[in-house]
Amino acid sequence: MSTVTDSVAFVASSEVQLATFYVGEMLLGLEIDKVQEINRCLDVTTVPHAPNWVRGVINLRGDVVTVVDIRTVLGLDRATVTKDSRNLIVNVSGELVGLCVDRIADIITVKYEDVIPPPPNISAMDERFFSGVFTGETDIVAILNLEAALESGK
């Protein structure tokens, strides 16, 4: 079971900035220092015989980046790419990975004391995918444990 202290960014500081985005109707957050850039879900080349959670690969200024359908990883239906869909290019252990998300939200600053452990029933998804939950004025943000989510797809 993960706890909010599993997140290095929270341990090192009393607050952290989160890039937030939607996967279905769920608002997720990811530490901003893990996000390298955001781009459109265009020109994805499919990879024959790849797992269903891999949308394909993109050429990012000469680097081949695997694009992951984060909806599939989280147990939801495969994403349908729309005009709002985006790739969050994230750095995971020195490797760039694209996360295909439904739409981008805001960058928010969260205080450590305002983050609680994820409830066991968080949208019936595996709680290990989340390092904490932040309740804002209007929304609840589930903080994605990126490493656990990507490891589960392998």
Q: Summed up, what is this model?
A:
The chain has 154 residues and is mostly beta strands.
Describe the structure.
- This protein has 154 residues and is mostly beta strands.
- The chain has a single domain, classed as CheA-289, Domain 4 (OB fold (Dihydrolipoamide Acetyltransferase, E2P), Beta Barrel), CATH 2.40.50.
- 11% of the residues lie in helices and 46% in strands.
- The chain has 3 helices and 11 strands.
- It has helices at residues 8-12, 70-73, 146-153; strands at 15-23, 26-31, 35-40, 54-60, 63-69, 86-92, 95-101, 103-111, 115-116, 130-135, 140-144.
- The strands form 2 sheets. A 6-stranded mixed β-sheet has the order 8-1-2-11-10-9. A 5-stranded mixed β-sheet has the order 3-6-7-5-4.
- It is globular.
- The two termini are 19 Å apart.
- Residues 5-10 have low confidence and may be disordered.
Number of helices: 3
Number of E-state strands: 11
Rg to the nearest angstrom?
15 Å
Number of domains: 1
Mean pLDDT over the full residue set: 85
CATH architecture title:
Beta Barrel
Helical content (DSSP H or I, runs of 4+): 10-25%
Cα(first) to Cα(last) distance is: 19 Å
CATH superfamily: CheA-289, Domain 4
N-to-C SSE string, H for helix and E for strand: HEEEEEHEEEEEEH
The helix/strand class is mainly beta
Q: What fold name stands as the CATH topology?
A: OB fold (Dihydrolipoamide Acetyltransferase, E2P)
Question: Roughly what fraction of the amino acids lie in strands?
Answer: over 45%
For the report, how would you describe the main beta sheet?
A: 6 strands, mixed
Described by its quaternary structure, the protein is single chain
CATH class: Mainly Beta
Contiguous runs where pLDDT drops below 50 for at least 5 residues? 5-10
Shape verdict:
globular
Strand order of the largest sheet: 8-1-2-11-10-9
